[in-house]
Each structure stands twice: as C-alpha cells, then as structure tokens.
Write the structure tokens for this entry.
Amino acid sequence: MSLPFHLVFAQIETKFYLIVLQHEHTPSINISTEVTRSRHCPHIRELFNQQIIDYQILHRVKFYHLPCKKDPNLICFHDNEIFMCLCTKEKNANCFHFDFNMTYNCMGWNDCQNEGKCFQDNPTCPTKTMCVCQECFYGIKCQFSKKQFGLSLDVILGYKILPHIGITEQSIYVIISIVLATVMLIGGLISGILCIWTFQSKSCLKAEKQICMLNKTAWLDVSANYDPISPITVKLTIPMECRSQSIHGVRYLWRETPCQFKEVAVYSTADSNLPAPPFIYFF
C-alpha cells in the first residue's frame, strides 16, 4: 500500500534535507534521489542576525521571506520551533507547521533496545519497522554493544556477515576468520589434552614421591651422626626424572629443600655451586 505525498524530508541528527518535492502526486512512480548539500534546509541562525532571532515568533516570521530573495539557491529553511519554510519560484517563503519534537517509538510499540529509534512504514497500520541505533550499538534491535570490546571479531566482521545464507557464500574475510578460529580452537584442545595427559602420568608421580621419601627418611641417621672429620660414605640409587640415577655426593646444608626434610640435599658432580670439604663428599 502506498501513501500519497508531495514532500519528503530526510533528517540526519539535527539537520534536515528536502529530498523529494512534487507539486502533483503521482500514484505509481520510482523516485531516485540523493542527500546533498544543495538540498540542506539550514536553521535560521545561519540566515539571520541575532537581533532578528531574538524577536518573538509572530514578529520574526515577517522576515522569513528575506533569505529566499537573497539566496537563489536556497530551497528551504526552518526555525526548529514551529515552521519549515520552502522557497518558491517567486522567491517567497511558503511556511507550514512542522513537528520538530517527534518521538520515534512506533506509536508506543518500540521494540528497539539501548535507546534506539523505531521507524514504521505506515503511521496507522504499519507492516514493517526498523531500528536506528545510537552510537556504539548495532544489530536488528540495537541489542549488541561495542563499548565492552576493543578489536574483537564480532565487532570487526559484524557488518560483513550476511544473514540467511550459507558459510560458503559469505565474503572471503568471514571465511578466513572462521577457518583461523577453528584451527586455533582445535590446536588449543589438543594442547590442553596433551598437557593433562603428561601431568597425570603415574610413573612421573611415583618417581617424585620416591625422591621425597628418600630425602626425608634415608638421611635422618646420617645428619644425626655427622662427623666433619670422618665424612660419611653413602651410595644410593634413586629414580630422578622418571629414570634411575646414582647419587654422587651428599651436601649438608641448613636450607629449604623441595621436600619436608631440611638438613640434607643431594647433588651431582656437575654442580658448580658446591661448598668446600668436609661439607661435600663424592663417591
């Protein structure tokens, strides 16, 4: 269903543009137009001095014909209060009442979120509605926000994802992003499974417990009977890093060790930070 009209204004924020003007209504016609600077309807602040602007509306409206006479390219202007004026071919101002405080809420049936404006195709019996979102919001109902994100994929590619079509028919940027995200997801899952499997190995856990038990129990008598003049000779074989290795030396230090026993630590001959005898004995 079409609605008869003679004028079509486009509002971009607080600016108005006269995009269609037809003196006689044509029921069936395709109109193609553009929003250009030449179709802009300026505010009277851009046309009059402050003295005229400060006049009362009934006094000020008497001067509304002057801009049309001064500027032959001017097609319209407004006062953002009551009147929208068109410049006629005779260079006169044809002014009419205009609603500058219109609320875009679809007659109270606004389904837009985050303070989005709702537009409908018919003021009395609408069949289609559309939401115009505020800055930093997007989506059919303005339900998505960009404020919590930096450079995430949903913000960067949100406008490139076409609805109601398959993945293979999407743009190359969307397909590449899906492939990369899938590869990273699979790689992360494999890495996590391998890490869990490694640290859950029973042989490694058993070897670590054996080392701690030897450090805690096997050296208790040694530290109690230690004589600096006659170093004690002890040789044990313990599992280390899941493999059996021989102990080459015993070092007596009162320091923290990885296990609960705090008096004896075991070192190999490759240790470069060893104290002088008799605190170390090699086999």
Q: What stands out?
A: Helices lie at 50-53, 57-60, 66-70, 153-156, 172-199, 202-218, 220-224. Residues 7-97 form one domain.
